[in-house]
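Quick start: what a row looks like.
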Amino acid sequence: MNTIWADRSGVHDDLSSVDGLVAWLRGAGGAEGDGVATADLAGGGAEGGGGVGRGDGVDGGGEARRVGEGGRGGEASRVGLARDTAEETGVAGETGVAGGDVGHVGECDLEAFRGLRRALRDLAGVVTEDTRDVSGDRDLARAVAEVNAAVRQTAAWPQLEVVGGELVRRTASAAPGVVRVLAAIAAEGVELFGGERRSLLRACYAPGCVLYFVKDHPRREWCSPGCGNRVRAARHYRRVTSREHG
């Protein structure tokens, strides 16, 4: 789930209001179990890039892509980072909100999530040396401080539970649900941007895309098959146009 996504009716921002944030938190936390991945928050971007500026997310572009097919808007992807990025950090689901129980959410929480979204995108831009216009005017010092501050907002500890007769490790916290999600996303950011796999992070330079992705194959150049198709279509159009006017 992206926080900024596009479909045929236009661009939508799940962090445009407190109600939007609540709906996003319940959808992300309830649909996927215990945690919310970094990429879930840092979504963003509409095809053409004109409607979404710096700090509007680490992912997006096109039709709300999340890597693969299905999902809201067509081609699915998730942190301007694609979803596989968060899964590879190994921290998704460690802390979060089970069953969508986010508790009270206010304007201060909305601003905190917007700030963290902007920080994650700035970090991705720095790590990838992103030259796209949408990644301009990034602030590394502010981004690092924002992520670290979010991580410190909650203390968590391991707990044992018995589920179906089996011992299961859970992470518990006394912090409100919305704060736990914020801290969990920030912690995933620390693992990703501070870990070895950051060297595989890439910006997707397909037309109109603002996504980042993990280059998990030597021949991978785009965040999703949809972006690859757009690049090939654009090349074909240029060739045809060149012949017609040549």
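That is the whole record. The chain is about 40% helix and 10% strand. Residues 4-245 form one domain.
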